[in-house]
Amino acid sequence: MQRRSNAYHISVLAVLIAIVIIQNVVPFFGYIPILGLSLTTIHVTVIIAAVVLGPKDGAIVGGAWGLIDWIRAFTAPTSALAPLVFTNPLVSVLPRVLIGVVAGWTFIWLRRHLKPAPSLLVAGVVGALTNTILVLGLIGTLYRHTAAGFYQVDLSKLMPYLLGIVGTNGVPEAILAGVLVPLIGLPLMRFRQVKK
């Protein structure tokens, strides 16, 4: 019985990693352009892995996304800034791993105090903001001059500019995660309990 449970767990983990790969490869699936913005949806898959399978597996799925981003920065960059900053695994990999860790532990802690749906909603929002704040924060800290030149802003105005990106991109991504994680996570959690 334990062997069957482990096989099921590994197969779900593999499916989620495969979804992350597809989201990175298929246009408009992982990055959706809306009104001049590019909304990321890949973090939703990482957060779902973290809340359904646990923080460790969320970190693995996030790490897969980070490694794909890191490789793409060398081979097929998604933007002109990518080869300048995403070739550093601290910017491309670490924040994506931490999405799974933070969202997973947030859900575990909240689940002790709240029902599943609000716990999933908050974990989704927190996971999405973890990605946005860490990526932009690391870019602003490690690549201040490069980022200021790329965005064509004065160095003293870089952090306010990056905070503006958090507002225009990060907040919609957090709202998206807050909506999708409970919608997808609740049925998956029920199905997982039935399988157990």
Commentary on this structure:
The chain is mostly helical and 196 residues long. It has a single domain, classed as Arp2/3 complex 21 kDa subunit ARPC3 (Orthogonal Bundle). The protein is 80% helix and 4% strand. The protein contains nine helices and two strands, in the order αββαααααααα. The protein has helices at 2-25, 42-53, 55-75, 82-85, 89-92, 94-111, 116-142, 144-151, 158-195, and strands at 31-34, 37-40. A two-stranded antiparallel ribbon has the order 1-2. β1 (31-34) and β2 form a beta hairpin. The longest helix has 38 residues, at 158-195. The protein is globular and about 55 Å long.
List the helices and strands and how they pair.
Elements (H helix, E strand, L loop, with lengths): L1 H24 L5 E4 L2 E4 L1 H12 L1 H21 L6 H4 L3 H4 L1 H18 L4 H27 L1 H8 L6 H38 L1
Helix pairs in contact: 1-2, 1-3, 2-3, 2-6, 2-7, 2-9, 3-6, 6-7, 7-9
